[in-house]
Design a protein that fits this description.
Elements (H helix, E strand, L loop, with lengths): L5 H11 L11 H20 L7 H27 L5 H24 L5 H21 L9 H18 L5 H54 L1
Helix pairs in contact: 2-3, 2-4, 3-4, 3-6, 4-5, 4-6, 5-7, 6-7
């Protein structure tokens, strides 16, 4: 006997249980994501200013694109490290990623700096993989691979080099960097498709096994 009423003891224990932490919308990770979304129309205006070939304005567009790509590196890490993950961030982050890259590719193709087939391949892969992740999400999450990170780095570097008004050897180098980016884009896309198929098959097999066990249990209960 402690002399402490049970209700009081229970209240003391309940008081010691930490309350669930609520993450607000306005946190540093989400602000960086919003900044990237706002940069998209600004980037397009800078990129297409005048005839779209002024080196100074292309440099400003490159700066906006670079800031967007840098914030892409940090917002996800900050959200996970400091427990700032929100539903808004889960939706807005991939949209912001695809928006800035898609805007840059389309602008470059409109200006005839980049073949439309390159833009089509990259955008088809990015949008297709995003939709595929939603297709298999009930069976599990496809993790980002090292190849996927290399692809993102190659794409960002290549597109950034095309945005700048480069000439001479650097203009030749960016062609090869973009070629590497396209190869990595296709290769990692195929690997993600393979992972999605394996994950979905495993998920369906687990569901069938669970259904079979439940059916067997129902038959035993009838007996």
């Amino acid at each position: 006997m402690t002399g402490v009423p049970a209700s009081a003891a229970g209240g003391a224990r309940a008081a010691r249980v930490p309350a669930a932490r609520t993450v607000g919308l306005w946190n540093i990770a989400n602000i960086l994501t919003m900044m990237r979304l706002v940069l998209v129309p600004g980037f397009v205006l800078l990129m297409l200013h005048g005839d779209g070939y002024d080196p100074a304005w292309r440099s400003f567009a490159w700066a906006a694109f670079s800031v967007a790509m840098i914030t892409d590196l940090f917002d996800g890490q900050l959200a996970r490290r400091y427990d700032l993950v929100t539903d808004f961030g889960k939706i807005a982050d991939p949209i912001a990623d695809k928006a800035i890259m898609g805007a840059a590719l389309v602008c470059l193709s409109v200006l005839d700096d980049l073949p439309w087939w390159v833009t089509g391949v990259i955008l088809f892969r990015e949008i297709g993989i995003t939709l595929m992740r939603f297709w298999v999400i009930k069976h599990g999450v496809i993790p980002a691979s090292r190849g996927g990170k290399m692809k993102t780095l190659a794409q960002g570097t290549a597109v950034g080099m095309y945005i700048l008004a480069l000439t001479g050897p650097l203009a030749t180098l960016r062609f090869w960097v973009m070629g590497l980016a396209v190869v990595l884009t296709v290769a990692t896309g195929l690997d993600y498709v393979r992972q999605a198929v394996v994950l979905r098959r495993a998920g369906l097999a687990a569901e069938r096994a669970g259904a079979g066990e439940r059916s067997g249990a129902d038959r035993e209960s009838v007996r």
